[in-house]
Amino acid sequence: MIVLSEASVQSHWVEREVYAAREREDRENREKRPVLFPIRIDDTVMSTTQDWAAEIRRARQIGDFRGWEDRSAYQRAFDRLIRDLTAEQCGSEQAAFRRPGVSMDAETAGQSSSPLKSRSYRSEKAAARLACRPDRARVYKFVLANGYRNFHGFRQLEAKWPWIEGALQEFVRAGQNDELQELCDALGTFLDFSGRWEVWLGLEKEALRRAIEKGDIENAGWRERRIGWIHFLMGNAVEVLGCAERSEEHWRGAKAQPLVLSSARQLRGLGFELQKKYDRAIIENEEALKARGSNPLSEVVVESLNDLGDVERASSERASAEKHYRDGLEIAKKIGDREGIAILTGKLARLAIDHEEWPAAERLARRALRLTEPLARQEMIGVHCRYLAQALACQSRRTEGRPYAVRAVGIFSRLGQKHKLAEAMAVLKEYDPGGLP
Questions:
Q1: In total, how many domains does the chain have?
Q2: What is the rounded CA–CA span in Å between residue 223 and residue 206?
Q3: pLDDT confidence of residue 434
C-alpha cells in the first residue's frame, strides 16, 4: 500500500517502490491481481505531470482518504479499504484498485467523463453477488476491463455490444447501487463516443434513481451531470440547465469540494450556450475555470478553456477564442490528453475556416481527423470530416473532398443531431447541388 500526498509524490523512493510493485505484478502474478494499492490524502497525484503518477491515475482506482482528519470520514474510507483488500485476498477480480480514465478530462474531474469525482469503492459484496450470476459477472468484468477511457478497449466493447446490451436490464433489475454506478462510469465514454445516447440516457436515469433511493447523493450529482451532457449533445437547453441545478444541489448536500462544484457551473454554461445567452455562458465558464485553476496542468482546465473558446467564437470574439484554444492545446500536449489535442486541433481548423484560410484549414482538419479516428468518437469524426470537406471544396478539390462530406452526413444522420446534419448537408450540396447521394 502506498500513501500519496504532496510530499510523497515528490519522493524518488516512492517512485522506485511503485515501479518495483509493478514489476512484481508483471513477473509473479499470473492472475493479474494487484500488488499495489494506492490511497491519497490530498489532490497532488491527480494534477502532477510525473510519468509514474500519471500511470497510476490511468491504471488504478485510488483510495480517497482526503477527509482523514474527520474521524467518521476516515472510518468510512478505512472500512471500504478493508473490504476491497479482503476481496482481493479471496480472489475477487472485481475489487482491483483500477481508476476509471479521465473525462473530465474533467479532472481531472471526468468527465467524462471524471477524476474530480471522489469515486465510491465497489465492495466485495458486489463480487459475491455477481459470482452467483455468471453472465452478469462476465459482462461486468469485461466492461470494467475495456471501458472507462481505455480507447483501445472500445473495439472490444463494440464487437461484444449485443451481448453487453442484453445484460443491461439484469443490472437494473438487480438493484445494486454500487454495481450500477460502476457500470455507468465504465460505459459512459464508450456510449458517448459510439453515439448510443438513448441507451446511455436510459442507463444513467436508472443509476440516478437508484443513487437517490440509497442516499448516495454524490453519485446522484454525477449522474445528473452525465444526463445533462447527453441533453447537450441532443440540443436540449432546458434539460441541460435543469440538470446543472440538480447536480449542484446534490453536491452541496454532499459537501463536495469547489473542484467538483465547478462541473455544475460548466454544465450551466453549456445550457446558456445552447440558448445563445453568450454573456451568461462566458461568466459560468470563467467561474468554472477559476475553480479549476489550482490544477493548471489538468484535463479539466483543458476542457474549460475549450468551452470558453466555443462561447467566445459563437459571440464573434475570435481572437479571445483562438487564445483559449491554443492555451488549452498547449496544456493538452504537456499532459498527454489525446482527446483534448484532437478536439482543440479541430477548433483551430474551424477558426481557419472562419477566416477563409483554406490551406491552413485543410492541414488542421486532416490532423484533427487523424487524431480523432483512434478514439472512435463518432460526433467528433463527423465534425472533422465536415471541416476537411469544406476546406477542400473551397480549393476546388471536389473529387478528393466529397467522401468526407458524405461521411459527415452519414454520421450526423445516425446520431440524430439535426443542426450538425444541416451543416454537413450544406457542405455536401457544394459537391452535389442536387442533394444527398
A1: 2
A2: 9
A3: 54
Q: Which residue is it, cell 472500512? A: 79
- Rounded to a whole number, what is the distance in angstroms from the first to the last CA of the chain? 60
What span, in angstroms and rounded, lies between the C-alpha atoms of 157 and 431?
36
pLDDT of residue 232: 92
Q: What is the pLDDT of residue 101?
A: 32
Helix/strand/coil for 106: strand
CB 60 within 8 A of CB 95: no
Identify the band that residue 40 occupies on the pLDDT scale cut at 50, 70 and 90: confident
Domain with 41 in it = 1-100
Per-residue pLDDT averaged across 43-71, rounded?
Answer: 71
pLDDT at 124 over 80: no
Measured distance CA(372)–CA(340) in Å, rounded: 10
Whole-angstrom distance, CA of residue 13 vs CA of residue 104: 30
Short-list 326, 246, 241, 253, CA closest to 284: 241
One-letter amino acid identity for 236?
A: N
**pLDDT per position as a tens digit, 15-30:** 667 766 666 665 555 4
- To which residue does cell 464508450 refer? 190
- The residues, ordered by sequence, that sit 6+ positions from 432 with a Cβ below 8 Å of its Cβ are 402
Q: What span, in angstroms and rounded, lies between the C-alpha atoms of 355 and 390?
A: 13
Of the residues 100, 124, 154, the one at which a domain ends? 100
> pLDDT of 261-318, one tens digit each?
999 999 999 999 999 999 999 999 999 999 888 778 888 899 999 999 999 999 999 9
**191: Cβ–Cβ under 8 A, 6 or more apart, which residues?**
197, 199, 200, 203
pLDDT in tens, 162-220: 889 888 888 888 878 888 999 999 999 999 888 889 999 999 999 999 999 999 999 99
Residue 80 is assigned to a structural domain of this protein: yes
Domain boundary among 100, 135, 165: 100
| Grid coordinates belonging to 222 | 454525477
Residues 253-274 as b or e (16 or more Cβ within 10 Å = b)? ebebbebbbbbbbbbbbbbbbb
Q: Single out the residue of 437, 428, 431 nearest to residue 386, CA to CA.
A: 428
Distance (Å) of CA 118 to CA 8, 222, 255, 284, 369: 20, 10, 12, 23, 33
* In-domain check, residue 421: yes
